[in-house]
Each structure stands twice: as structure tokens, then as C-alpha cells.
Write a sequence for this structure.
């Protein structure tokens, strides 16, 4: 399979991951909204207010998660499939330890039974990879790793 096709598939898998997260968060927010609007004032006023406060906290948490997902979408929007001599956002890096797609932290992804690690540029290994070229080496977790190819 052509490298640009692999990168395109990996990018699509990252986008699907973010979209699934977005849908879960939106459902959570909708559920909280329903609970807030359907909750009626009971004779036990303190209990009612405590319930509302808890729901407000949950809504705030969901709002923070929503903002994080929107950041991930922005990052994915900046990725280009073109190759470069230096490791950058969107690079597919082949090392002596594995294959890394510099994008967002998703973890292991598979394309045609081959494993790739989708990692963020600001992750510990992402920071070590950025700007490197073929033949460069670096140490990570006590292992010396060599960059064999960059797509």
C-alpha cells in the first residue's frame, strides 16, 4: 500500500476516534440538560438543590471535555498528508522500535495488519521525534531508537 494511502487511513481513524468521543460527550450533555429541565422542585428543597448542583458540575465537566475534543479536531485539521525530510505533524515515522503517526494521542492503530502508534506532537516521544531526520537516534525509556524512514 502506498504510504500516502496509509497516512490517509490513519488520519481517518484519528478523525473517527475524535468524532465518536464528540458524540458521547454530546449525548452526556443532552442527558444532563434533560435531567435539569425535568427535575421538579420537591418538598425536600435541600435535596433538590444538591441534585441540581451535581448536575451543573457534570455539565461543566462535559463542557471541558467538549473543548478538548474541539482542540483535537483543530489539530487534525492542520495535518497534511505530504511528506517532509523532518518529522513534523502528519509525519509517518518508521523507527527501530515501531511506526509512529504524529497526530493526536490515540494509541495503537492498525492498517492492513500492521501496527502504528498515533501519538501527539507534544507527547514525550513526540517531542523527541519532532524535527529529526532519517538516521537520527534518540533515547526513550532507556532504549536507543533510530529513525529509519520518514513519510
Amino acid at each position: 500500500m502506498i504510504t500516502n494511502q496509509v497516512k490517509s487511513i490513519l488520519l481517518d481513524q484519528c478523525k473517527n476516534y475524535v468524532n465518536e468521543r464528540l458524540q458521547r460527550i454530546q449525548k452526556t450533555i443532552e442527558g444532563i440538560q434533560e435531567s435539569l429541565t425535568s427535575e421538579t422542585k420537591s418538598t425536600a428543597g435541600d435535596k433538590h438543590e444538591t441534585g441540581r448542583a451535581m448536575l451543573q458540575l457534570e455539565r461543566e465537566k462535559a463542557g471541558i471535555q467538549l473543548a478538548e475534543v474541539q482542540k483535537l479536531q483543530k489539530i487534525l485539521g492542520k495535518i497534511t498528508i505530504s511528506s517532509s525530510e523532518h518529522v513534523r505533524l502528519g509525519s509517518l515515522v518508521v523507527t527501530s522500535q515501531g511506526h509512529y503517526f504524529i497526530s493526536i494521542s490515540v494509541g495503537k492503530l492498525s492498517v492492513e495488519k500492521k501496527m502504528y502508534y498515533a501519538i501527539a506532537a507534544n507527547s514525550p516521544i513526540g517531542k523527541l521525534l519532532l524535527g529529526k531526520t532519517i538516521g537520527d537516534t534518540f533515547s526513550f525509556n532507556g532504549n536507543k531508537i533510530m529513525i529509519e524512514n520518514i513519510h
User: Anything to note?
Assistant: The chain is about 50% helix and 20% strand. The radius of gyration is 21 Å. The helical segments are 3-38, 45-78, 124-129.
